[in-house]
Predict the structure of microtubule-severing ATPase.
Amino acid sequence: MHALKSPKGSGGVAGVKKPPTPVNLNAMKGVDKKLALRICDDALDAAPGVRWNDIAGLEGAKKHLHEAVILPRLKPDIFQGLRAPPKGILLFGPPGTGKTLLAKAVATEANARFFAISASSLTSKWVGEGEKLVRALFAVAYSVQPSIVFIDEIDSILTARTEGENEASRRLKTEFLTQFDGVSSSSGHVLFMGATNRPQEIDDAALRRFTKRVYIPLPDDAARASLVSHLLKGQCHSVKGAELRSVVSFTTGYSGSDLAALCKEAAMGPVREAGANIAHVSAKDLRPIAAKDFKAALRVVRPSVPAASLKSYEKWNEQYGVSGTGF
């Protein structure tokens, strides 16, 4: 699934050219320069440093994204006409499954500039400036293409229209769709990616623009084992082999963030065992984290995704998406 390891450089796939130098704000016209600068400071991550191999599992999702984004960059002569790559990709699934990491990996592998903004920041941090910010965001992205604009919690902006929708929300949504249309009709190398835990709430008009919808499911057994092993890396522990498999067998339904919480709770076992003596104990004197610590942690840290929610994701994927579990 989504075990993040130490990145080994930020260069992308061989044969894919590196992105150009950062934008010259003085050369931009019709855009609020202050907002453009804030975007460069707050949203631009020129080198995310996450690679495919840094994400455990999700092989199906990675293959879909490789075909949709990386191959067209490598072989533009092949990916034309009916093979033209999508300009809008939606990553959907339960929370804590690695959607943001996948988007960063796409940017790294494609050697693209990566702009990441959460939808909530558009309605709070930049309140009253949402429309101008969206225009500036896409203008900056175009100026440093190839680039990827990634919006987390995209459903909160592109939610289905209602009678009680306020004017500011409506204008922000309209501006997003306008910019999205510009990306879709342009021959430039700007990709719009959105992530959501609530795909069913996205407006139909917006959903049609996401021509590639990739389901990011909970991790399977192998991915959970890989993630737990990674989280324990560098720690003093004895959870290996059969013990690791035993621990993992009890974590069906856990997301990546659930497993991180589980490992943190298990790591506290040796500390709690030391009791009042902890003030006089050094780290090297603590006993290793053991399987019994995980058994205790499993009683405290439970899966955060209800079974009913999983069924709704699977049903939505059958209707509108492509499976992230196979290819």
Summary: The chain has two domains: 25-217+312-320, 221-301. Strands lie at 44-45, 88-92, 113-118, 147-152, 190-196, 212-215. The radius of gyration is 22 Å.
